[in-house]
Amino acid sequence: MELVEDTLDTGLDPFLARPLFCFLTQRSGSGPRISPLWFLWEYGAIWHVAQLDDRSYPRRVREYPDSAVAVVDFDPETGRVEHVGMRGTASLEAFDRSTAGRLLAKYLGDERREWPERFVGLETDDYRLIRFVPETVVARDQSYRAPAGESV
Description:
Blueprint: E1 2-6, H1 12-16, E2 22-26, E3 33-37, E4 40-42, E5 45-51, H2 57-63, E6 66-75, E7 80-93, H3 97-108, E8 127-141
Parallel strand pairs: 1-8
Antiparallel strand pairs: 2-3, 2-6, 4-5, 5-8, 6-7, 7-8
C-alpha cells in the first residue's frame, strides 16, 4: 500500500477505527455504482459483511474487482473535514464469524444480546465478506475554522 499523502492529525489506523461509513465505488455494465457500507479496517484491508440474496454489489465485486473506497468524517459545527480515499482491488471471501463479529461490534457495541435481531446469527451460506485491499491511499485533513456562533 502506497500512502500518497497523509495530513491527518490522528493517523490512518485511528481514523479508520471510527464508526463511519465507507463508500465503495465500482463500475458496472450500466455505469458506475456507489454503495455506503459499514466496514472494518484490519490487516491492511477494508472488510464488509455482504448479504448475497438481494444485493448487487457482491456480484459486481466478482465482475469488476478494481474499486475505490472513500471515508469522510465531517462535523459542520467544528469545521472538521477528514477524508481517506483509496484505490485498489476488492474480492469476495468466505464468511468468517469472528471478522463479522468485530465489524458489527464497531457499530452496534460489544453487547451482542442488545443487537437488533437481523444482525444476530448470520448464516455462512447467505453471507460473504468483501475484502478491499488498497494500492494507493490519500488521507487528508481538510478542516476549516467554523464561524463563531454559527451552526448548520
